[in-house]
Here is the input.
Amino acid sequence: MLRTGIVGLPNVGKSTLFNAVTRTHKAPAENYPFCTIDRNLGMVTVPDRRVEMLARISGSNHAVPTAIELVDIAGLVEGASHGAGLGNQFLSHIREVDAIVQVVRCFDNDDVVHELGSVDPLRDIGIVNSELLLADLATLENRRASREKKIKGGDKDAARELQLIEKLQPHLDAGNPALTLELEPDQRSILREFFLLTAKPTIFACNVDENELAAALDHPGRHPPVSKVRAYAAEHLGAEAVVVSARLEEELVDLDPSEAAEFLAGMGVHDSGVSALIKAVYHLLGLRTFLTANEKEAHAWTIPAGARAPEAAGAIHTDFQRGFIAAEVIAFDELAALGSKAAAREHGKLRVEGKDYVVEDGDVIEFRFNVS
Here is the structure.
């Protein structure tokens, strides 16, 4: 399963956000730096109204949503790339994840200590990104030395790697993450083997005060810290910035969904910032959802974007992929509009697709297979 790491400076709300998103109290979230030392792992249900609706349409007994894994990583400080704070441990944990949620403090609170004594979102982002860049430059320098030795022995793969390193180093030296460098497809494949920190897709979580959440969600342009983070994310990474109130969301963990929704509505909030964050992370990882249903359950399944029908079948069971014959497909929105599979069949909306069909997000599928 793909993992997303929650990173940021100490005391910006990483562990609080982790608890809110995973709906647990697993991660310590105290008001002092480095209250998180060991990483925390948690499974996160991906909000998806479609699977609940499909259960009702199909008369299924229950609904099974998709899930992703989150990792709460210890706070980073300036100098982490040289081992300061929990730097080496922090960086090694980031190398193990597939995407990054960078939590940025966008609230003032004298009772919550900031490591640097003041709230400045762009300064904080700059520190985190600089440390990741420095760590990547060190990685490239070490790799360059080893590849130069191999080239002397006639290693062609090492020569291709060195070409890429020579293209990457000036890009990173200029303060640009590896993710933003234009590369050919074969170079992208080589880059994945470098495990660079700045090559990981990133999303920003703007952590605001609970009393500012409604205004920040409805009018982010009027919240200066959020505006700054969004502008930075778009300009430097082509990335998204999502507004959340980690403290408020953590308080909702012990409430049932209806109570939580009522509480949020009382604050003028109609959709959870955390819900939006989870959905954004799911797509950041390059994941898509298809659906199946029978009388027992409606089930949401995770596949990589661009997966073909047999690969989707394999997400359910390897036998489905091995014996794949065809897939009966309808888009969820079409099925919901018609109200039943019988009505969809009557209106000719069910399609039979073969092995080359690229599954779309929200497809409702019944697979035909034969394993002899």
